[in-house]
Design the sequence.
């Protein structure tokens, strides 16, 4: 099973939400599993897009009961770890997509880079090692390149 971790703002702008929604749809179209922090904003949008096309969505939840999961998370991994779950979110994907974000996203980018993950960024933190993309279409092209032809 091929998995992509999507990280980003829990309080997404309209643009971030739309980009994440599009990315979710395209990842599902490729048959890829979407892994995220399972909450609002970018996480909700990517799950919504993926779910609408029948994709599998996995939320690495901060609580023990997963009650804060967005309605599009199909599989909840309840950790009780709050932000300490961030390394698990990025370790679960073979590639990481960062969309916007604040300090939580910054920490996830750092963990992803420490783990040697490829990080594709859209209007996110300017950190050495992040490949900044100018459009969601460019992100999808890069994901396709990373995995080769998927489904």
Sequence:
């Amino acid at each position: 099973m091929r998995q992509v971790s999507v990280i980003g703002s829990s309080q997404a702008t309209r643009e971030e939400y739309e980009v994440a929604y599009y990315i979710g749809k395209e990842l599902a179209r490729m048959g890829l599993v979407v892994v995220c922090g399972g909450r609002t904003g970018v996480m909700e949008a990517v799950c919504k897009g993926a779910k609408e096309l029948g994709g599998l969505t996995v939320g690495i939840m901060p609580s023990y009961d997963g009650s804060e999961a967005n309605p599009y998370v199909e599989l909840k991994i309840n950790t009780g770890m709050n932000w300490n779950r961030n390394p698990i979110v990025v370790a679960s994907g073979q590639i990481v997509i960062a969309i916007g974000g604040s300090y939580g996203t910054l920490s996830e980018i750092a963990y992803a880079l420490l783990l040697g993950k490829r990080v594709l960024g859209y209007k996110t933190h300017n950190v050495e090692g992040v490949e900044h993309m100018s459009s969601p279409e460019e992100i999808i092209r890069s994901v396709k390149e990373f995995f080769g032809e998927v489904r």
